[in-house]
């Protein structure tokens, strides 16, 4: 249980692929103009992570060290191709919106890194859970950044939800405010850099406060034990 708890904390916060490892930034910054774009790419990346982690774990004792990286890349490319074909078939408009950044998932260092550093050394079950948590951590940053840019830039949220969820989601768009002049800085790539920097800064502030609180809690616990002993 402690292993799964640690994997969850690592993937979602302590070792988040986007906020801490700073991996996969090219698609992260390029496609997060809206919440739905970020969610679509996040789900695709998470599914590739889970599938590749499980497969790498299953064959970890069969692949020689000299060729393991090319084999891992081939496995990742196979799963990316599957996801790309599924999106082309069922979410075609979102597929067009994400464009080249779907096949570029193959080059995401976060996926290759987890296959090499974790999945190749652990059982399929725990490797799958690691892929899920790392994927969720990456997807969380995508949707937060995409939602933030969409709200600031266009005053809407969940615009284009039907591209991912179908006709049932056509009425999901929330209009927070109306504007005749969209805030282009938020929509264009510079806004992605600024938003990403803000998210990293917020995480660092929270981590600093948690680190400052830990010694105080430890000191209180020590005093309590000394008092109880005396």
UniProtKB/TrEMBL annotation:
<dbReference type="GO" id="GO:0022900">
    <property type="term" value="P:electron transport chain"/>
</dbReference>
<dbReference type="InterPro" id="IPR010968">
    <property type="entry name" value="RnfE"/>
</dbReference>
<keyword id="KW-1003">Cell membrane</keyword>
<keyword id="KW-0472">Membrane</keyword>
<dbReference type="GO" id="GO:0012505">
    <property type="term" value="C:endomembrane system"/>
</dbReference>
<dbReference type="Pfam" id="PF02508">
    <property type="entry name" value="Rnf-Nqr"/>
</dbReference>
<feature type="transmembrane region" description="Helical">
    <location>
        <begin position="20"/>
        <end position="50"/>
    </location>
</feature>
<keyword id="KW-1278">Translocase</keyword>
<feature type="transmembrane region" description="Helical">
    <location>
        <begin position="71"/>
        <end position="90"/>
    </location>
</feature>
<protein>
    <recommendedName>
        <fullName>Ion-translocating oxidoreductase complex subunit E</fullName>
        <ecNumber>7.-.-.-</ecNumber>
    </recommendedName>
</protein>
<feature type="transmembrane region" description="Helical">
    <location>
        <begin position="96"/>
        <end position="115"/>
    </location>
</feature>
<dbReference type="GO" id="GO:0005886">
    <property type="term" value="C:plasma membrane"/>
</dbReference>
<comment type="function">
    <text>Part of a membrane-bound complex that couples electron transfer with translocation of ions across the membrane.</text>
</comment>
<comment type="subunit">
    <text>The complex is composed of six subunits: RnfA, RnfB, RnfC, RnfD, RnfE and RnfG.</text>
</comment>
<feature type="transmembrane region" description="Helical">
    <location>
        <begin position="127"/>
        <end position="148"/>
    </location>
</feature>
<keyword id="KW-0997">Cell inner membrane</keyword>
<comment type="similarity">
    <text>Belongs to the NqrDE/RnfAE family.</text>
</comment>
<keyword id="KW-0813">Transport</keyword>
<keyword id="KW-0812">Transmembrane</keyword>
<feature type="transmembrane region" description="Helical">
    <location>
        <begin position="183"/>
        <end position="206"/>
    </location>
</feature>
<keyword id="KW-1133">Transmembrane helix</keyword>
<keyword id="KW-0249">Electron transport</keyword>
<dbReference type="InterPro" id="IPR003667">
    <property type="entry name" value="NqrDE/RnfAE"/>
</dbReference>
């Amino acid at each position: 249980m402690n292993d799964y708890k640690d994997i969850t904390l690592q993937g979602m916060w302590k070792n988040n692929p986007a906020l801490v490892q700073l991996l996969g930034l090219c698609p992260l910054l390029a496609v997060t103009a809206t919440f739905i774009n970020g969610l679509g790419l996040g789900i695709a990346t998470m599914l590739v992570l889970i599938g590749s982690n499980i497969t790498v774990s299953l064959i970890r004792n069969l692949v020689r060290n000299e060729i393991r990286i090319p084999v891992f890349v081939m496995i990742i490319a196979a799963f990316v191709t599957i996801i790309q074909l599924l999106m082309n078939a069922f979410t075609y408009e979102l597929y067009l919106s994400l464009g080249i950044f779907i096949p570029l998932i193959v080059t995401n260092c976060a996926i290759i890194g987890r296959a090499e550093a974790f999945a190749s050394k652990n059982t399929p079950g725990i490797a799958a859970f690691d892929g899920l948590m790392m994927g969720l951590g990456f997807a969380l940053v995508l949707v937060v950044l995409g939602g933030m840019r969409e709200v600031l830039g266009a005053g809407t949220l969940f615009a284009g939800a039907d591209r991912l969820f179908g006709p049932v989601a056509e009425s999901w768009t929330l209009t927070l405010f109306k504007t005749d002049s969209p805030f282009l800085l938020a929509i264009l790539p510079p806004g992605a850099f600024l938003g990403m920097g803000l998210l990293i800064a917020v995480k660092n502030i929270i981590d600093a406060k948690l680190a400052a609180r830990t010694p105080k809690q430890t000191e209180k616990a020590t005093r309590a034990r000394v008092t109880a002993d005396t």
